[in-house]
Amino acid sequence: MNQVVINNKKYAFHEGQTILNLLESNGIEVPALCYDERLHPSSVCRLCLVKIKGIDRLQPSCRTLLTSKMEVTTHSGEIENYREGVLRMLAKDYPQAMVLKYPQKEFHWWLQHYGITGEIENRPYTFLDASHPYIQVDMTRCINCFRCVKICDELQGQFVWHIINRGDEVKIISDSKDLFGQSSCISCGACADTCPTGAIEDKQAIILGMPEHTTRSVCAYCGVGCEIAVGVKEQKIVAVHPAKNAPVNKGHLCVKGRYAWEYVYAPDRVTQPMIRRQEQWETVSWDEAINYCAQRLTSIIKEYGPNSIGMVGSARATNEDNYLVQKFARAVIGTNNVDNCARVCHQPTAKAMSIALGTGASTNSFDDIEKASTILVAGANATGSHPVIGARIKQAVLKGANLIVIDPRRTELASYATCYLPVKPGTNIPLLNAIACVIITENLQDTAYIESRTEGWNTFKTFIGGWTPERAAKICGIHPRLIREAARLYATQTPAICFHGLGLTEHTQGTDNVIALVNLALLTGNIGKEGTGINPLRGQNNVQGAAVMGCDPSVYTGMASVKKERQRFEALWKTSLPSSKGLNLPEMLDTASAGYLKAMWITGYDVLFTMPDAKYTIRAFEQLDFVVVQDMFMNETSRRFADVFLPCSSSFEKEGTFMNAERRIQKIRKAIPALPNVKADWEIVCNMAVAMGRKELFNYSTAQDIWNEIREVWSAVHGITYERLENSGLQWPCPATDHPGTSILHTENFPREGGKAQLSVVDFMPTPEQVSVEYPFILVTGRELYHFNAGTMTYRTANKDICHSDLLHLNPADARRIGLKDRDDARIISKYGETFLPVLIDDTVRKGEAFSTFNNNRTFINKITNPLRDHYVQTPEYKITAVRIEKATERTAG
Length: 894
Hints:
By secondary structure, the protein is α/β, with parallel strands linked by helices.
C-alpha cells in the first residue's frame, strides 16, 4: 500500500492521486479557489501551495501527484502568511457587502477564515447584467480564477466565456462581448455552479435564498438519468445542482435538469381529484373519486368484458408505479391491454435488439464514450435531446475520438464530425446496408468474431453485396465516397460505439433501421467489449423502466413473455391472469374508433397531444365511454376527454426508482412534502385495487415494498436493494446482493437460442409518405434543448422565456421562394390537417425539407403528422410527413 506523510501523520493513497485530492478526502482544508474536481487543475490562484520535504519552493497541491514516502506540510507559518497575502490582494477591490450577504460562498468563507472581511473596500456595483433568464452576472465580484472559462470549455464544450487582456487588465467576458443573455450560452449553469464568489450566480439563489439542506435524487427529464442535489429551504425547493460524484453526469446538468423544476409550484397544478359532470369539473374527495372510478370500471367489465379497457403507464413515473399499473391491468381488470410511451419512440429498438441480440436493452454504459476510438451517432441530436451525453461525446471528440454523424440536419455534433452523412429522411437502410457492403467488400470485417459469435453470415454476405455505395447514393442522397469513408472509419478505428435515437426508430421501417445498425456492430465485433455497443438514447427519464416493468401487452416484468410465463406470474401473484392477446396503444385507439374499447386509464401521458394525426385520435377518444387521467396538470387529453382527473405527486415528492438508458437503477428520494391532497401513482393504484375488491394483491405500505416484490419476480434485479442504492445506482443484470452490476452485456454469449447473435437481411421498402406536387416538402419532427415532449413541465418554467414556441426550421432558399422571413407565421398543410408555426431560417436544414419540434400545445404539430406505423411494433412515422408550406395571412392564421 502506498503511504504518504502529511503534517506528521501517515495516509494511504492510490496511484495518480493528487495531494489536494487526498487532503479533501481526509478533511484537511486548504484554500483552492481555482480548483474544481471536474476540471484539469491550473494552479492559477496559488492558494493551495504546500511544502514538500526536499523541495525548496512551495508546490501546488492541486496538480502535484503523490509519491510513496512523500512528506507534506500544509499549514506552516510561512504557508499561512503567503495564503493570507494572496487573499488580501484578491480582496483589495472586492465589494464587502457581498461577503456579508453571502458568507457561504467559497471565496467569502476563506476571507472570513483569515480574518480579512473588515479590510475589504465597499466598492459599488459598476454593472449588473440580469439579461439571462436564469443567470445573473456581476463582474465586480470576479477574482479571475478562470473556473467559469474552464468549466464551459472542459465540461460543456460551449466556449462561451473568454479571457481577454493581460496582467492587471485581464478580465472575463462572454462571447457576445455585451449582455450575457445575448451570448451562445445554453444555460447548463456550470459556470454559476463553479464560481466561488457569485460573480456568476443563479437567479433562483438570489430570489429564493440558499438551501438549508439537500437531498440526492434523479432528474425527471430525459433518459440519461443525471443525479441531482435538490436544495430545500422551509420545505420548498430553492435550487437543483448536479451531484458531483454521479457516474452518469459527473457533476454536470442541462438547463432542464438544473433550472426547469418550478413546474412543481405552477399555479395551475391540479391538487384535488375531480369528476366531470354535465361538462363541468367538480372537485371531490379521494374516496369519491376512487369509488366512482371503481364502479364505472366494474360496470364496463361486466357489460363488455375486461378487454374493453386499456391502461397506459408513464415514462415519467417510477418503476414501482409502472409495475403496479401493469399488475392492476392484468390481475384486477383482467386484460393485457397495457402499454406506455415507448410504443411511440424506442419500441422498434427493443424489438430489433431482441431479434438480433436476444435482449432489447442498451449493451454498454455511458462511460464507454471515453473508451471509444470512434463514436457513431445516428438519428439523434444528442446535444439538444440528451445534452449531458451530447457534451460527453463532444468532449471525447475534442480529445481525439472520431465521430460519424448520420442525420438529415446538420446538428451541433455534425459540425464536430469526422464524417457527416446527411441522409435523406426515410433512407437509413440503404445507407447502413451500403456501409456494411463496403466493410465486407474491402475485407474490413472481424471474421473471427462473426464465425464464433453470430449466425446468418453466408446469407447476409450474399445479400449485402448488392448494396453498393453507388446504388445507395441514388436513394439516400450521399456521395459514395462519404459512405466508404464512414465504413472504413467505423470498421478500422476501433473500439467503436453506436448511439441512436428516434431518427432511426420513428419510421415505417424503424425496427429494420435498428437491425441494420446492429448488423454493422456485429460485422466489426463492436459488441460485448469496452468502448463498443448499440446504445439507444432513451427520451424520457423512465421510459426504459416503464417498458421493462411490463407496461407492454406482450411482456410481464423483466420482459418475460406473456405467452410463455403466464403460469409463473400466476403463481407469484397468486391469481389467475388473462391469456388473450393484449392491445398496444395504437391498437387501443383503433379498437376504440371501431367501438370495442370502452375505457382508458392513462397515467402521466398526454395521448391526444402526442399521437400523430390528431383528428384520428380525437375520433377514437370520442367513442370511449370512460376516461381516467392521472397527472400533475390538466393536459390536452384530460381537458377534452377525461371523466375523472386524479392528481399525482412529482418525482420530488415521493420515493422510488428510475431506470436510465444504460440499464442503471437509481434511487429517487422524497425531497419535499407532497402538495396537499396529491398522491404517488402507486398509492392511487393501490386505492383503486382496494375499491375493486383486490386488496390482498396490492397490500403495500411503501415504494420499497413494491421494489422488493419486483426483485422476486425478476431475477436480473434481485441483487439491487434499496440499501445498496443509497450509495450509487446499479446496472442490471445484478442477480445477487454481492454482485457489482453489469456495465457491458454480451461479453461471452447472447441470450438467444444457441448463444449467437443474428446477422439479418434487411431490404429497403420506401415509405408510402412521399412528396408530391401538392405536398412538396418533407417535414421532420424532433426534440430541442429547452423543452421536453408535450411541454407539460418546461412551459411552466422560465424555459418558455428562452424558447417561446415550436418553430418551423426552413432552408433560406426555400424561405425566399415562399416569401417567408424569420418569425413570419407559416401555414403548414398535410393530408391530415394543418397548423401554424413561426419560421426560423436555418441553413442546417436542406432544401425541400423542414424541421419542427412538437412541444407547444398551441402549435400542436401532431395535427398534421403522418399516422403510418412501423410494421413490427406500430410505432408512428413521426419523422416523415409530406407537407405544403405557405405564408400565413391574417385571415388564415386567425
